[in-house]
Design a protein that fits this description.
single chain; mainly alpha; AhpD-like; 2 domains
Amino acid sequence: MRPRVEENGEDMSDSERRTRGMKMFNEVYGGIVPFPPEELHDDFLFNTVDQLFSEVWSRPQMSIRDRRLFVMGIIASQAEADTFEIQIRAALHKGELTPADIHELAVILPYYVGYPRGSRMRAVTQKVLGELKKKQAGA
């Protein structure tokens, strides 16, 4: 992937790219996924930060919420329940999606990703929304 050129026509330095990537990582996950500790820092992690978060998630053409919905559909199509749960939790935590929005995802997904995958994602949504209800009832 070619580094994105800034509006002023200049390439970003590696440290600027890393800083922007880490900032975007935190904006996307809102503290739901902590940045890995230093002993887990490696090329895979920093390629993800420098490319995916700095160069892709930070593009202005789509909001984080819109990108998240797109990504959630792809994750559901692969039946990646753990990653789907992370995205749900982050979207709820950041106020990008409401519990009603999450419920609607569970309704529509089986028609596009297949019943087994959709029902697995529904189980994840029920788990997360159930925990949220308990938390709100106890608050």
